[in-house]
Amino acid sequence: MNSLKRSSVSVFAILLVLCFAVSAFAQIETPRPSQKASVMQRIGVTDITITYSRPAVKGRQIWGDPLPGQTAKGEATLDDQNVRPKGAAIVPWGHVWRTGANEATTFVVTDDVLINGQKLPAGSYSLHTIPTKDEWTIVFNGTANQWGSFNYDPAKDTLRVKAKPQWVNQSEEWLTYTFDPVTDDSAQVNIRWEKVSVPFTVKVPDVAATTLAKLKTTVANAKPDDWRTRSDAGVYLINNGNPELGMEWLDQSIKIKETFRNLSAKANALYKLGKKEEAIAVAEQAIQRGKADKVDTTNFEKRLADMKAGKI
Fold it and tell me: Is 168 helix (H, G, I), strand (E, B) or coil?
């Protein structure tokens, strides 16, 4: 019996060592010819992140017609390993392309957006393209983590949009994704490599509604003693068109803990809403609270004087 136990322990020990060995091997990282990169743009409160690997031109033919016998199913070439028929373009027209190298490019968006006017739900996607000379198809596929486009399954596409390639004189050696230009509710994504630039637009349909939804979630999840979150959220809403809910959150903050910060914020909000006498009363309360907490109230005292004089 003891021999059986010792044998079991020995087998367990060997398996444990093997597990550590496999784990250690899996963590090995080596340089790749196409280095990994990531770009992120925030639109309102929505984050868009593109992660990709950057192949270089290296004097090669990037774009071209497929060779005889090449089909358009899946990616036609292995960029970094140069495993391709002699004379083949890196990206043959009409083929699905990972739009990068190594793993498929990923496109992650934290809220629902519009891509060239079409809805893309919040989520993680692999980004593929089907380039032609005159038009590109931008593909957002539901399988986010895959190697290249070799196992790409069109049945799992979430969205396809069309984009027009722009041919330029200056060559871009390394594949690059950029966000430019950017507005308050949109950004143009530019895929740039060699002498081609392909733009498509990402738009947040309603920044105010998205922001409000996130603020409500944040306040709802705040700890019972968290007066700061309620105060900051309230001030934002008061300054951005929702004074009723903003004042409600400010009052919640003050009920949890009276501070110079939330009292002065309420005084400013009341004055902005045209409630001068109430604002002055709360401002005096804020100064009293600040002095008790050893806060420098000098600037706010000047503001209170201006409130009383009607100078602001």
Answer: strand
